[in-house]
Amino acid sequence: MMWQDLLTAVALMLVLEGVLPFLNPSGLRTALFQIIHLNDRSLRAVGLFSMLAGVVLLYFVH
After folding, report:
1. Whether 27 contacts 20, CB under 8 Å
2. pLDDT at residue 49 above 80?
3. What pLDDT does 62 receive?
4. CA distance 61 to 49
5. 52, 44 in Cβ contact below 8 A?
6. Model pTM greater than 0.90?
7. Which spans in the chain are helix H?
8. CA gap 49, 27 in Å, rounded
9. DSSP label at 1?
């Protein structure tokens, strides 16, 4: 059952990551261009915030 949950999570991640390029490809290009110009510290802060938000969401879901 653990593999099924992991594959479900990966599939959902792929679906969610595909929404923006499908709906607004030029907006995605603009966002990626801005991300490229972030310094390492800012990019790490965004990554940390994203991970913490995911952990909090998992805590409330389970």
Report:
1. yes
2. yes
3. 84
4. 18
5. no
6. no
7. 2-23, 25-36, 40-61
8. 22
9. -
For residues 24 and 21, what is the distance between their CA atoms, to the nearest angstrom? 5
Place of tokens 């607004």: 24
Tell me: the pLDDT tens digits for 9-23? 999 999 999 999 999
At how many degrees (to 10) do helices 2-23 and 25-36 cross? 100
Rounded Cα distance, 61 and 54, in Å: 10
d(CA 7, CA 54): 17
Amino acid letter for position 49: F
Alpha-carbon distances, residue 8 vs 5, 12, 15, 44 (angstroms): 5, 6, 11, 27
Tokens of 55: 């952990």
Q: How many CB atoms lie within 10 A of CB 21?
A: 13
Q: Which residue has the tokens 């679906």?
A: 15
